[in-house]
Amino acid sequence: METEVLSVEKDGLEAVCEACKEVFLAGGLAAFPTETVYGLGADGLHGENSAKIYAAKGRPSDNPLILHIGERSQLDALVTEVPESAERLMDAFWPGPLTIIFKKSALVPETTSGGLQTIAVRMPSHPVANAILKTCGIPIAAPSANLSGRPSTTRASHVIEDLTGRVDLIIDGGDVPIGVESTIIDLTQDVPVMLRPGYITLEQLRSVLGEVIEDPAIRRESIIGHMNEVLHPKAPGMKYRHYAPKAPLTIFSGTEEDVIETIRSLADDTTGILTVDEHRAAYPAERTVSVGSLKDPESIAHNLFDALRSFDEMQVTRILSEDLSEADIGDAIMNRLLKAAGGSFVTMKSEKREP
Ligand code: AMP
Ligand code: MG
Fold first, then answer.
1. Residue of the nearest CA to atom 20 in ligand 1?
2. Which residue, by CA, sits nearest to atom 5 of ligand 1?
3. 11, 48, 262, 304: which sits with the fewest CB atoms below 10 Å from its CB?
4. Is 174 in the same domain as 28?
């Protein structure tokens, strides 16, 4: 398949929107930027069209897609009911990086919902995504625009690398602002359940809804201990190894000194090291990547997938990473990093005890 690449800067927003519309209405695939990561879109209301996404990504067909809409009025036809809790969340966070799970209407094919009777819906705030969705007028099924299992794409160059020859069109809209996927909340159960951490935090969800629980499968211990296998996660995507660079990745946790010392002692000249600006100078100049500053967790989210991908180019045989903070967006960052590591996580107990 021939893949056309258009750029918002060079070709203009209108041309880009029209090109996407043409592709989607013809049942094709187009990748475009959103505020979280790049999305790989297709017409979400015809199973034979959305099915092409699974083939292009090499994605298991039981891993459901998220429907993207440009206007709130598009929601009603897709779902059997809009609970009052959803109204409040949409008022607070739409358009934006929050995906809401509803009970699906008959209009939504099971190919799009991965065989489930529920459907995930999001209204992105990125001006390019929003303009494309408004121009098309149909709900667009769009998971992250990466090959299945690989780190999500946050730059157009990542999408070109993964999907050239597999999709009809790629829209270059520059680097995405956030860099980790949307927060997912399920409103089809008795109590709202957060299925995936993202830019919108658990605390923010609770400030709007009151009680919100976390799916046990997304907790740090679950990912480390079982890679979720025994927990039967509600978000099916959570059971697959995800976001992974080619070389195996191990995360080290403990005091700053212990972590740095251990990584330094284990690293040889085929080892990649993932660190932060504050610790960069402690490591060799080569094959060390700083993902951002501890003082600015949003910079870490923004750079994380690019950093993981950069190790592939360096052809390292393994990657040693520091534990990254867990506050606010740090929760989303560590969730992605732990999955990239396949749960390989080492906690070091300091030998220097307090008296
Ligand atoms: P991606 O867009 O690649 O991040 O993938 C979308 C993810 O959203 C899936 O892997 C699931 O984890 C989640 N998801 C989508 N639809 C549903 C649903 N109906 N119920 C639960 N989780 C869902
Ligand atoms: Mg994905």
1. 235
2. 143
3. 48
4. yes
Residue 270 to residues 21, 76, 312, 323, 333: CA-CA distances in angstroms? 46, 54, 12, 21, 25
Q: Locate tokens 């300091």: which residue?
A: 350
Give the tokens for residue 169.
């069109």
pLDDT digits (tens, 9 = 90+) for 128-163: 999 999 999 999 999 999 999 999 999 999 999 999
Report every protein residue that has its C-beta within 5 angstroms of ion ligand 2.
144
Q: Which phi and psi angles does 10 have, rounded to 5°? A: -85, -40
Calculate what percentage of the chain has a pLDDT beyond 70. Answer: 92
- Can you give the residue range of the structural domain that contains 181? 4-225
Residues 289 and 210 in one domain: no
Helix axes 127-136, 13-25, angle to 10 degrees: 50
Kindly list the distances between the CA atom of residue 23 and the CA atoms of 113, 156, 176, 230, in Å, as whole numbers in the listed order. Answer: 21, 18, 22, 40
Nearest CA-CA partner of 112 in 94, 87, 138: 138
- Residues contacting 185, CB < 8 A, separation 6+: 89, 98, 99, 100, 101, 192, 193, 194, 195, 205, 212
Residues 104 and 216 placed together within one structural domain of the fold = yes
Torsion, CA 181, CA 183, CA 189, CA 191, rounded to 10: 160
Q: Is the pTM of this model over 0.85?
A: yes
Together in a domain, 257 and 121: no
Two structure tokens written together for 238: 């959570």
CA distance 265 to 258: 10
d(C-alpha 44, C-alpha 105), whole Å: 13
Ligand that comes closest to the CA of residue 78: 1
Which of 331, 332, 340 is closest to 146 using CA atoms? 340
Nearest to 243 by CA among 196, 287, 205: 196
C-alpha angle 167-181-225 in degrees, rounded to nearest 5:
115
pLDDT in tens, 190-243: 999 999 999 999 999 999 999 999 998 888 777 776 544 433 444 544 555 578
Ligand 1: list residues with CB < 6 Å. 63-64, 66, 101, 113, 116, 118-120, 143-144, 181, 184, 195, 234-238
- The C-alpha atoms of residue 40 and residue 319 are separated, in whole angstroms, by 28
